[in-house]
Amino acid sequence: MVFVHANFAARASRFGGLRYDSGSSCPVDLRRAHELRETYPAIAVGRRTFELDEPQLTVRAEHLGRAPLSQPRRIILTRSADFRPPLGYQQIVCPAGNLKAALEGESLRGIDGLLLEAGPTLLRAFLEQRALSALTIYLRGQQPEGVLPALFRLLPALPRHFNMERTGQGYLLTLDLLEPKAKVIGHPNDFVVTPLTTRFGEAMLYTFRDRAFGREHGALVYGDPSPSGGCQPALVRIHSECWTSELMGSVHCDCAEQLEEAHRQIAADGRGVLILHNAEGRGIGRTNKTDAYRLQHVQGLDTVAANVYLGLPEDAREYFSAAYLLRRLEVTRVRLLTNNTEKAGALRQSGIDVVEQIPLAGFCTESNVAYLAKKVACGHDARLLTAVSGQRRFALPTNR
Hints:
By secondary structure, the chain is α/β, with parallel strands linked by helices. It folds into 2 domains: about 5-185, 3-Layer(aba) Sandwich (Dihydrofolate Reductase, subunit A), CATH 3.40.430.10; about 190-280 and about 315-385, Rossmann fold, CATH 3.40.50. Helices cover about 30% and strands about 25% of the residues. The chain is built from 14 helices and 17 strands. Strands 1, 2, 3, 4, 5, 6, 7, 8, 9 and 10 form a 10-stranded mixed β-sheet that branches. The protein has a 7-stranded mixed β-sheet with strand order 11-12-13-15-14-16-17, sandwiched between helices. A hairpin with a 6-residue loop joins strand 12 (about 200-210) and strand 13. Mean pLDDT is about 80; it is low at about 180-190 and about 390-400.
């Protein structure tokens, strides 16, 4: 199912409750809303919201402070086909209000991420049907502790675990609906940068928080990866973190080897970005990943089947956070180090031009061959199954 990120804004009413706030008044808040719009390939509202507000659903330069890199597809969600959308808008019918059926239908084929700017009625339906991946709630001008009871009355299915931070003229709550987390107070700055000496050379270390989950990601930047820094697009690697391989020394996969090789290539090239994507277990988190490993060991399930058995997505990753970082670095054209074509497609949908996809291959061993074969079966580059020998790697038997 498509990754759905709902963005909701509310403010206190005269009667002590909360009411839907369709707009933000502060430049900081407006910029955040339009950065979100630019990040996603499609944006949707409900029919009632559209008829009441007639939203443009576009990214506007006056709020970004620059020309937008891309414009999203504009979508109106309806319960019946009797509505005729105006020119430039696409209608998606949700039969009998079944949102999951609509999101899995042909109308959204080719779209891997949808930003939902929902009113409370539609948002309640998305929450009740568990059709959301992430949710951000902007409380304008409020001390959140005082209005949270009203928010939970407005949205009864809303999880009670969230991240919270002060922004603009209000507070921003971020909820990861794939993996609930404890409430924490966020760092006031979503971008922190410092020089870092690595064994490959001098780099700049970035820590940043994404706009969907409130998760913290890391990145190493070598040289100037922007177009002004060189004649060809910079090398970029979006590396999904893997604590079992990179910290625990597991040989079940090839993640540690891929991370090291990508780091070496980017540093040797002199300019590029290595993003450490906070997406453990293809986005399901450490606890779920450990449970999936247990199933693989006990029942012999493969890495995808174990996720499905646990009722989890085969792949819950989003790449909009990586696109957000690249835009902040003014990187709009890249040579992407990956065996996964979905990463390239996701960046393209977010306005990043992937001019070349460069595979990372040659780390197949007796221990990880089944894991890599499953990745190839799911569409990854077949060169993943190339056998090598060396430290932590073993040549495959000839009958493999």
